[in-house]
Specification:
14 helices; about 425 residues; binds uridine-diphosphate-2(N-acetylglucosaminyl) butyric acid; 4-stranded mixed sheet; elongated; about 25% strand; about 30% helix; 23 strands; alpha+beta
Length: about 425
């Protein structure tokens, strides 16, 4: 068991290079299943969810090799279309292999995916979309068996909600399906565009990704791009490091972070009194003195304020002057970090979709536990600005999405270390 030990109160100075995006690399790794040949990827973050995806690919018979942030996956010869429940449970993104495997082999067996506990996370939209494309799917005691004896057929999908995962799954199923697939009310997140770019580089015919209507004309097969494909920067990791500076104070340059993907987030930091400047693909942040409360923050699908940044922005607002209201519209149970922040001295009332954060002068270090990935990151941000020492356990959640968070922050002057706890 490992924990992060953070001594708060040291301002941050320096540069942080943004890691590759977790939520972009995972669907791209699933897409490798559709390519016969060796796919090379660059800027893959070294996070545990990426390793879990690589383990799934290996279990399917792919040859996966990696060196730092570069990864090669060769899915020329797959030997299985079955993903064990232990692999499925490691993360939510495992469900994306359903569309890819159906497209490649016409069958797969898997079970319900894991992922952070953010309230109910059904996969009904994924399943009904695959059925609409001709897959026969049975669910017996949680084992989901899928076959497409006649192959998948393109069709029209109108999503009742622009689900990121369902949009990705349909894209993966559709690229080699027969005929045209249209996804209306599709998710528009940058990670969808990254998947679209990758699939196009492999020969897929896709248009409209990034808008609400994606059209896909099925092709016979996909071939790996000749050049390594570059994963986009992680907008939520960038927001997290900006938030670390907002909590601890100081001056940071967040490099290579695609500021256009943070258009809903940057103005909130500015409203809080942080000084932000965008230089090309870099964001500079300077923070001194006490922050101010922000206008109501409502999480929305992209390009709205991202649910993944909700906890991360709550941390600095805990010590801002005034009251900020959060409305979480995407997940039912995404305030699990509020209790932990309250134990550090924050004043947060959370009920249902709404959390009311009244700023207090200081947070105080304590012994605490990461409730989920972004909630854990919020505790790191809060601890950097708190008085005294905070110990955060449950950091396997944080490792799912952040590459060596303690090294990144130490390089900017934070007093943070990873320690291995003795089992009691
Ligand atoms: N939903 C359904 N049925 C479905 C699919 C989704 O009801 O079949 C509901 C969900 O329960 C939720 C809403 O739709 O209430 C949004 O879910 P969505 O499918 O868009 O999310 P996801 O694909 O499960 C991805 C990210 C999340 C991010 C959300 C929203 C990955 C691996 N995960 O999840 O990232 O919060 O989109 O932007 O891409 C994180 O990185 O910490 C994280 C949780």
């Amino acid at each position: 068991m490992q924990k992060l030990v953070i001594e708060g109160g040291t301002p941050l100075f320096g540069e942080i290079i943004t890691q590759g995006a977790k939520n972009a690399v995972l669907p791209v790794l699933a897409a490798c299943v559709l390519c016969e040949g060796k796919v090379m990827l660059r800027n893959c973050p070294c996070i545990s969810d990426r390793y879990a995806s690589a383990r799934i690919l290996s279990a399917l018979g792919a040859k996966v090799t990696a060196e730092g942030n570069s990864l090669a996956a060769d899915c020329s010869d797959l030997s299985s279309d079955d993903i064990s429940s232990s692999l499925m449970k490691t993360m939510r993104s495992s469900i994306i292999f359903m569309g890819a495997l159906l497209g490649r082999t016409g069958k797969c067996t898997l079970c319900y995916p894991g992922g952070c506990n953010l309230g109910p996370r059904p996969i009904d939209m994924h399943i009904s979309a695959m059925r609409k494309m001709g897959a026969v799917i049975s669910d017996e005691y949680g084992v989901i068996s899928c076959t497409a004896p006649e192959g998948l057929k393109g069709c029209r999908h109108s999503l009742s909600f622009p689900s990121v995962g369902a949009t990705e799954n349909i894209m993966l199923a559709a690229v080699t399906a027969e005929g045209e697939t249209v996804i209306s009310n599709a998710a528009r997140e940058p990670e969808i565009c990254c998947l679209g770019d990758f699939l196009r580089a492999c020969g897929a015919k896709i248009s409209g990704d990034g808008g609400g209507r994606i059209a896909i004309e099925g092709v016979k097969k996909l071939t790996p791009p000749p050049e390594p494909f570059e994963i986009i920067p992680d907008r939520i990791a960038a927001a997290t490091y900006i938030s670390c500076a907002a909590c601890a104070g100081g001056e940071l340059l967040i490099r290579d972070c695609a500021p256009a993907h943070l258009e809903a987030v940057i103005p909130v930091f500015e409203q809080m009194g942080c000084r932000l400047r965008v230089f090309g693909s870099n964001i500079y942040i300077y923070k001194k003195g006490r922050l101010k409360a922000a206008d109501t923050i409502r999480t929305m699908v992209y390009p709205g304020f991202p649910t993944d940044a909700q906890a991360i922005l709550m941390a600095p607002l805990c010590t801002a002057e005034g009251t900020t209201v959060f409305v979480e519209n995407i997940f039912e149970n995404r305030y699990r970090h509020a209790d932990a922040l309250c134990r550090m001295g924050a004043d947060i009332r959370a009920e249902g979709k709404v959390a009311v954060v009244t700023g207090v002068p200081h947070l105080y270090g304590t012994v605490t536990e990461a409730p989920d990935l972004r909630g854990g990151a919020a505790l790191v941000c809060a601890a950097l600005g708190a008085m005294g020492t905070t110990e955060i356990s449950g950091i396997s959640y944080i490792d799912r999405g952040y590459e060596e968070i303690e090294q990144v922050l130490s390089s900017a002057g934070a007093k943070i270390s990873r320690m291995t706890e003795e089992k009691q």
